[in-house]
């Protein structure tokens, strides 16, 4: 049953939000016992493909795996393999700059508007007097906006997974950018926005490559999100 439903979701025959029939009907369709049915649903729920709602209007529904959900499994694998954070930074530095160049070469008005809004939000967060959490989340959104709009879905998903591993590490560790680092990041984002607006692909890629070479990239701490 789990394999069949997984395939239907992958083919688009079942879409996010679709409700499953009652248990008795599912048992009859698949010719399985109630315990087997519930175990299959638990497997699909763990994979982020199904959510089981409680209450009168509850029951299993189709969901789409999120980057956050996939990151948990990805980060667990990295931690088991003993991967250092610098390794994740290096991988992201390979993925992001070419996508920055692609974004500059072929951005849409919608992509430019989203990037502008993300940078404006980061600039506003940079002035918030907190422990740096607000700016960290806003800065991550700038990177995610770039990745989503660069025109390569495979690299976008890979980049978002890598970036989310790094972001979750800093959330857990409590390490955040200083006021000076925030101001420097905003200046860099603004310059990048200008290059994208001008359609200067080579300069945008080079600039983002420099942005990715920040001092903390050499962090030798191991990925550790499950201790």
Automatic annotation (TrEMBL):
GO MF, one example: DNA binding
Sorted UniProt keywords: DNA-binding, Transcription, Transcription regulation
Family annotation (SMART domains): FCD, HTH_GNTR
PROSITE patterns: HTH_GNTR
SUPFAM superfamilies: GntR ligand-binding domain-like (SSF48008), Winged helix' DNA-binding domain (SSF46785)
CDD domains: WHTH_GntR (cd07377)
Pfam families attached to this UniProt entry: FCD, GntR
Superkingdom: Bacteria
Domain HTH gntR-type intervals: 1-65
InterPro entries named in the record: GntR_C (IPR011711), TF_FadR/GntR_C (IPR008920), Tscrpt_reg_HTH_GntR (IPR000524), WH-like_DNA-bd_sf (IPR036388), WH_DNA-bd_sf (IPR036390)
Record protein name field: GntR-family transcriptional regulator
Species name: Frankia alni (strain DSM 45986 / CECT 9034 / ACN14a)
């Amino acid at each position: 049953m789990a394999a069949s439903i997984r395939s239907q979701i992958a083919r688009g025959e079942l879409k996010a939000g679709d409700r499953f029939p009652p248990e008795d009907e599912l048992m009859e369709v698949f010719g399985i016992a109630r315990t087997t049915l519930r175990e299959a649903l638990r497997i699909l729920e763990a994979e982020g493909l199904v959510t089981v709602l409680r209450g009168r209007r509850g029951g299993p529904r189709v969901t789409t795996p999120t980057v956050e959900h996939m990151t948990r499994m990805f980060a667990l694998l990295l931690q088991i393999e003993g991967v250092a954070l610098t390794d994740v930074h290096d991988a992201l530095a390979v993925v992001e700059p070419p996508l920055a160049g692609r974004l500059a070469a072929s951005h849409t008005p919608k992509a430019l508007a989203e990037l502008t809004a993300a940078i404006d939000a980061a600039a506003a967060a940079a002035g918030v007097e907190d422990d740096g959490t607000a700016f960290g989340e806003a800065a991550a959104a700038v990177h995610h906006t770039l990745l989503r709009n660069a025109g390569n879905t495979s690299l976008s998903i890979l980049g978002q997974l890598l970036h989310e591993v790094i972001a979750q590490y800093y959330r857990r560790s409590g390490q955040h950018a200083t006021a000076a680092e925030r101001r420097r990041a905003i200046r860099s984002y603004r310059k990048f926005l200008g290059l994208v607006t001008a359609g200067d692909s080579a300069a945008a890629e080079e600039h983002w490559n420099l942005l990715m070479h920040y001092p903390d990239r050499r962090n030798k701490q191991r990925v550790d999100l499950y201790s």
